[in-house]
């Protein structure tokens, strides 16, 4: 299984991007308050739990995010 380098951020809730305010996005298929949200920066993507918007988040490179999404689409992460 591929691995993606990630780091958790001691910053809570806010993901700073150079080009303005952060827009956290949640899947339209989310039917509860406990979903994954993502925010896109120029070189990084932040991932957090929507139930804890002021909590910590994981930050990965944009390249790692694209590889992760491709692996999901290709079924590479199935058990």
Characterise the protein shown here:
The relative contact order is 0.26. The protein has a five-stranded antiparallel beta sheet. It is α+β, with helices and mostly antiparallel strands and 79 residues long. The longest helix has 13 residues, at 62-74. A hairpin with a 3-residue loop joins strand 3 (36-40) and strand 4. The N and C termini lie close together (10 Å). It has one helix at 62-74; strands at 6-8, 25-26, 36-40, 44-49, 58-61.
Using brief descriptors, characterize the structure shown.
79 residues, alpha+beta, five-stranded antiparallel sheet, 1 helix, 5 strands, disordered N terminus
Q: How much of the residues is beta strand, in percent?
A: 25-35%
What do the pLDDT scores average to? 76
Q: Unreliable stretches, pLDDT < 50, 5 or more residues?
A: 1-6
Number of strands: 5
The total of helices stands at 1
The general outline is globular
Distance N to C terminus: 10 Å
What structural category arises from helix and sheet content?
alpha+beta
Strand order of the largest sheet: 1-5-4-3-2
Question: What kind of sheet is the major sheet?
Answer: 5 strands, antiparallel
Give the fraction of residues assigned to helices: 10-25%
Spatial extent as radius of gyration: 13 Å
Helix and strand element order: EEEEEH
Summarize the structure.
The protein has 79 residues and is an alpha+beta fold. It contains one helix and five strands. The protein is globular, with a radius of gyration of 13 Å.
Strand-helix topology:
Layout: E1 6-8, E2 25-26, E3 36-40, E4 44-49, E5 58-61, H1 62-74
Antiparallel strand pairs: 1-5, 2-3, 3-4, 4-5
